[in-house]
C-alpha cells in the first residue's frame, strides 16, 4: 500500500512539472497575465474529478458534487467563465491537464503576444485640451 502512495505522489509531481515546463515554453506566445491565470487554475485541479462523455465533451465534478459541462469542441464551459474571458476556467484546466492538450489552442487569440503587439502597434495620438 505504501508503494502505491509513493508512486501516486511521484506521478503527481511529474504531472505538475510537465505543466510548468509547458507553460515556460509557451510564455512567449501567451501574455504574462494569461500564463499567471493558467498557473493559478492548475493549482486548483485536485478539487475536481473529470468524467468523459464523448471525445470532446466532459463533466467536471467538485468535492461537493456540483457538476459543470465542458465542451472543448465549442469552447464552452457551463460556468461561462471561459466564454467571457477567453481564458480557461478551472473546469477546463481540469480536463486539459490529463489530456496534455496545448494550452494555446484553448485560449482566445486576444491573449497572445502577437495580438497584443498588433493592438498597440499603431501610434496613439494625444487629444487636444477641450478647455482651450
TrEMBL record:
User: Is Zinc-finger among the key words of this record?
Assistant: yes
Please tell me whether the keyword Metal-binding is annotated for this protein. Answer: yes
The record ties this protein, via InterPro entries, to: Znf_PMZ (IPR006564), Znf_SWIM (IPR007527)
MF-aspect GO terms:
zinc ion binding
Domain of life, per UniProt, equals Eukaryota
Q: Which residues cross the membrane?
A: none
- Key words of the record: Metal-binding, Zinc, Zinc-finger
Ranges of residues in domain SWIM-type: 68-100
Question: What is one Pfam family matched by this protein?
Answer: SWIM
* Stated name of the protein: SWIM-type domain-containing protein
Amino acid at each position: 500500500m505504501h508503494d502505491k502512495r509513493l508512486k501516486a505522489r511521484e506521478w503527481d509531481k511529474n504531472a505538475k512539472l510537465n505543466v510548468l515546463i509547458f507553460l515556460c515554453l509557451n510564455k512567449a506566445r501567451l501574455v504574462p497575465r494569461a500564463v499567471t491565470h493558467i498557473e493559478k487554475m492548475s493549482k486548483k485541479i485536485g478539487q475536481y474529478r473529470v468524467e468523459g462523455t464523448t471525445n470532446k465533451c466532459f463533466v467536471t465534478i467538485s468535492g461537493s458534487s456540483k457538476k459543470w459541462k465542458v465542451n472543448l469542441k465549442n469552447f464552452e464551459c457551463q460556468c461561462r467563465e471561459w466564454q467571457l474571458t477567453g481564458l480557461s476556467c478551472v473546469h477546463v484546466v481540469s480536463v486539459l491537464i490529463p489530456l496534455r492538450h496545448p494550452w494555446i489552442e484553448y485560449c482566445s487569440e486576444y491573449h497572445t503576444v502577437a495580438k497584443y503587439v498588433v493592438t498597440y502597434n499603431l501610434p496613439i495620438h494625444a487629444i487636444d485640451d477641450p478647455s482651450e
